[in-house]
Amino acid sequence: MSILLRPWAACDLESISRYANNPNIANNLRDTFPHPYTQEDARWFLSYAQRSDPKREWLLAIDLGGTAIGSISATFHRDIRPVSAEIGYWLGEPYWNQGIASTAISQICQRILSQTDVQRIFAEVLVENTASRHALEHCGFQLERVQERSIYKGGQYLDSCTYQLLRQWAESFPDYIIPTRLNSQNPPAL
Ligand SMILES: CC(C)(COP(=O)(O)OP(=O)(O)OC[C@H]1O[C@@H](n2cnc3c(N)ncnc32)[C@H](O)[C@@H]1OP(=O)(O)O)[C@@H](O)C(=O)NCCC(=O)NCCS
């Protein structure tokens, strides 16, 4: 299954409204991602994405066969951490567990490493979000730290963890970011 990361377009309104309106997605994201997710939320997001400054963030649709089935982003930390990029992502539930997030993560990491001087890519994940943790691990990310009770969501304190991928790891293994499920080559042991 071949996916493409591309800019958001006005024609994605219907698909983003359909897939984003899902508590199973919102429960794993920051509260800035609303639930319910209305057409108005989708319209606001598309307009924001089209105006966003690529020096500060990349907001990309995960496109399968011309339909936006999810979202992936990179936010560049330029103040006291000029060398870091944080990634975030979600995927429409009908497409889960087919290796698509692993592929999207690997693609955005390859772009970040080839098009910027970012040294460290990281993601913050709820400890219980096994699917996201597995997807990051498939792409060579390593667990950096666990932060207990660092998130307050849905009336509960939750533990989160940070995964990171360093440029030097990637450069030691030129073909490292290849999800195992989608390719016959084994990823290198990082
Ligand atoms: C996280 C998310 C993007 C993963 O997308 P995906 O395309 O299903 O991910 P992949 O198929 O690439 O990889 C998921 C891995 O987790 C595994 N997995 C999924 N659910 C699991 C579970 N409940 N327990 C154990 N493993 C699980 C899958 O088997 C797969 O591992 P494998 O390839 O070794 O079999 C998707 O579940 C999602 O959008 N969730 C809601 C939003 C979210 O959590 N975003 C990330 C915030 S950090």
Outline the structure in words.
By secondary structure, this protein is of the alpha+beta class. It has a single domain, classed as Aminopeptidase, CATH 3.40.630. 29% of the residues lie in helices and 33% in strands. It has a 7-stranded mixed sheet with strand order 1-2-3-4-5-7-6, with helices on both faces. Helix 1 (13-20) packs across helix 3 (39-51). The protein is globular and about 45 Å long. Mean pLDDT is 90; it is low at 178-190. Bound molecules: coenzyme A (COA).
Topology:
Elements: E1 3-7, H1 13-20, H2 23-26, H3 39-51, E2 57-64, E3 67-77, E4 84-91, H4 100-115, E5 120-126, H5 130-138, E6 142-153, E7 156-166, H6 167-172
Parallel strand pairs: 4-5
Antiparallel strand pairs: 1-2, 2-3, 3-4, 5-7, 6-7
Bound molecules: coenzyme A.
The site of coenzyme A (COA) has 22 residues, from β4, α4, β5 and α5.
